[in-house]
Design goal:
Structural class: alpha+beta
CATH class of the largest domain: Alpha Beta
CATH topology of the largest domain: Diaminopimelate Epimerase, Chain A, domain 1
CATH architecture of the largest domain: Roll
Distance between the termini: 10 Å
Helix content: 10-25%
Radius of gyration: 18 Å
Number of domains: 2
Number of strands: 17
Order of helices and strands: EEHEEHEEEEEEHEEEHEEEE
Number of helices: 4
Length: 265
């Protein structure tokens, strides 16, 4: 069996995308998904998404991590699948789609390479020592850091993600450092089990946590630099709840191809 796929990246966060509106592909196969995402033996990607029909919505986003397991929300993946939907002619410049954490609204530029994705509201941020813990569609740990460019993000992030508190369900670990009018962020992602070039729900979590950290309220815009480029987060915060949260950034189609699926998968 051959699968036709597309490769997209959003600030270096790269994904395999498959048009599965005809339900030709049974993707509930951990070994197959992990194989496709493997960078040496498969296509390679931080995750894979299947675009599917869903009544009441323009489409449904079904996302799996690179380890083959179903995932919580992926922000940059959400932006990339919006660009994919525009490429397929499903949408024009706005969309409402369904993801694992609920409905999402998004707008896309006329050129199709800049996506503004609305994220879920957030009303709870807790502390773990000096770090902040919150869920922006996926669970995140946010810690301020010095000399972030030289930090061993893999070792420190792996240790936090696997400690007694988080090892069962996992958590994404974000290290953040002030950078001009915004922040520089590096993230260790569960499911990928490594540092990624960007994490959309992660930079969203950082922007919200830093607003609370700095006692900011009102309408806030936070530019964030990641290893793969630049993202922007804007939101409203009344001191209790974060609303109208938008993750904004590039979503670029890199290439397309076909992959042969062996019978043993």
């Amino acid at each position: 069996m051959k699968i036709h796929f597309y490769k997209y990246q959003g600030a270096g966060n790269d994904f395999i995308l498959v048009d599965n509106r005809e339900n030709h592909i049974n993707h509930h196969n951990v070994k197959l998904i992990a194989h496709l995402c493997n960078r040496r033996f498969g296509i390679g990607g931080d995750g894979i998404m299947f675009l599917q029909n869903k009544e009441g919505y323009d489409f449904e986003m079904v996302y799996y991590n690179a380890d083959g397991q179903p995932s919580s929300m992926c922000g940059n993946g959400g932006r990339c699948i919006v660009a994919f939907a525009k490429f397929l002619g499903i949408i024009k410049n706005e969309t409402d789609f369904l993801a694992v954490d609920g409905p999402h609204h998004a707008k896309i530029s006329a050129t199709g390479d800049w996506v503004s994705l609305q994220m879920i509201d957030v009303d709870t941020i807790t502390n773990d020592a000096d770090a902040y813990v919150l869920n922006t569609g996926s669970p995140h740990y946010v810690a301020l850091a010095d000399n972030l460019a030289n930090k061993d993000v893999y070792t420190e992030g792996h240790a936090i993600r696997n400690n007694e508190t988080y090892h069962t369900n996992g958590i994404n670990v974000n290290f953040v450092e002030p950078n001009g009018s915004g922040y520089f962020v590096r993230t260790f992602e569960r499911g990928v089990e490594d540092e990624t070039y960007a994490c959309g729900t992660g930079v969203t979590a950082v922007a919200l946590a830093m607003a609370k950290h700095n006692n900011q309220t009102g309408t806030i815009e936070t530019p964030i630099k990641v290893l793969g480029g630049d993202l922007n987060i804007r939101f409203n915060y009344d001191g209790n709840t974060f609303t109208h949260i938008f993750l904004e950034g590039p979503a670029v189609r890199v290439f397309e191809g076909e992959v042969e699926i062996k019978n043993h998968y």
